[in-house]
Please model this.
Amino acid sequence: MKLSLVFPPWFKEFGNYQAAARRISTFPPLNLCIVAAIAKKAGWEVQLIDAHIEGLNDDELIKAVGDFNPDLIGLTAATPFYPNAARVARMLKQALGKPIVMGGPHVTYFGAKAFVDGLDYLVIGECETVLTEFLEQFEKGNRYPDVLGIMTHKEEEVFYRGGAPTVSNLDTASLPERSLLKHELYMMGTSKGRKRYTSFQMSRGCPFSCIFCASDLYGKKVRRRSIDNVVEELKMVLHQYKVEHIYFVDDVLTLDRAYIFKLCDAIEKHQLKFTFESSTRADLWDEALAVRLKQCGLVRISFGLESADDHVRELMKKGVSLDSHIVANKINNRLGIETTNSAIIGLPGDTRESINRTVQYICSQRELQHITLNIAIPYPGTEMFKMVERGDHGLKLVEEDFSKFQRYGSAVMDVGDLKAGELIDIQSMALMRIYACWWRWIPIIKRFGIETIFITAFRTSLALLESQYRKLKRSLSALSSRPLSPPPAAPSSSSAKPPIEQPSRETVLV
Ligand code: B12
Ligand code: SF4
Model:
């Protein structure tokens, strides 16, 4: 049997920030490599196409999959990728007529609501515990397999027994099948140059409950691989695929301090030479840890600074003090470890003033060298998604097209009297204010390259000009249409509603 795994293309969804996104977000699809490993072990022949990195258009994608002639096609999607993945599913179904399965965070959250024309199966949860049985049943010709974690449908009727159990011992899972990736295409900019890189996972789960994060989609329990198991995969990645840089996608790299020291000892003992990066919390960072990680190749770490406003910080339930951020950045600046601080605007409780406080704080803190400034998006699976459904803190969803669930140049909810559109303008202006400081340019140039910075700055300035022009046009037309007598009664609430794009209902099966 043959399985074709496809990661659909997605850059154009990043609008003005697509050049920067292309530069830093071309991650190898680790989940599809895991699926490939399980399928191969079950005796299937597997093809993996990352249409995004390979730059394939629709026709080229259909041809590549068609030439392989699979029995089953697999797709993956986080929320903003989902509309495009659903489009690709419909397209491949029309062109090739093969059964299609989709997994990932979006379908795990929405279940049956994620069925669209073309999709035959959804994998709800982690696939390691259920995929082998599903493939076996499929191979036997059972098109409606009664397997936990597998959702299927016959026209409008959905069959589902419940979510896939999580993997309790990650060491028992097959190592991701990276032989199917075109490794030479995955390059990451680092302070030590652009390097061939891959993504790598040592643990799953996070015990914290930040309202904007979907880390507990598969449960809160933290599961960690043994150091020996990690070393086995590291050796394979470095020696077989000549990877030079690793992005550890663990939710919180330094959650278990002792584990990290043991990992460093193992990296040294086995003489594994590579640079790496990851993300963690600033309150789980200290000098001894930073020194040790740097000795073993750490070049970049990300912290979530989020907001500088006390009320917003309390509502977002992160529980990391601003002081810890400054201390952690100070350590890294002294040691020469590049540090990314991710801030968010438009969180519950945010106002123009609180956002201004956050931006002012960032501008005044020289230790915070590299900042990313995201617009808060209520991703399905987060507490914030539930808050917006309930309308807590004046949150209101104004955009239901999931492809717009991007953190840059796109906003999907009003926050009190802060309108979504206004947040986009505030983001552009704030980024300009933050990056007006020359000492912030160097790490950015190293990471993105001067050409990417120029394109992004140019497109952002154009977008700002456009938004000013739109505002001016609106004011002029309001002036010219102003009635001489007092206006009639206020419009009804339904006509005052902002336009919300509805998903195309005819494609939603259930
Ligand atoms: C790397 C990563 C990325 C990469 C993804 C690239 C890639 N090629 O995979 C990049 C940087 C591009 C990215 C971007 C974004 N990401 Co991201 N990302 C991650 C991260 C850190 C790791 C993903 C990963 O590899 N996980 C490991 C794999 C093994 O897990 P998995 O994908 O869930 O897959 C398992 C199952 O779902 C299933 N499965 C998945 N797909 C399939 C397919 C088939 C056929 C089958 C059978 C099974 C199956 O099997 C896998 C093994 O059990 C996760 C956090 C995390 N720790 O998972 C966030 C995460 C997936 N990202 C998230 C988000 C929100 C985003 C962004 C939308 C915003 C952001 N935070 O940056 C953007 C979207 C970009 C866009 N176009 O809009 C959320 C998703 C929430 C949601 N509702 O979708 C997560 C969970 C982070 C979080 N904690 O909130 N991301
Ligand atoms: S933001 Fe980080 S600390 Fe907070 S829940 Fe997500 S992974 Fe955990």
Notes: The chain is about 40% helix and 15% strand. Residues 2-159 form a domain with the Rossmann fold fold (CATH 3.40.50.280). Residues 450-480 form the longest helix (31 residues). The pocket of iron/sulfur cluster (ligand 2) is lined by residues 206, 208-210, 213, 215, 251-252, 281, 304 (CB under 6 Å).
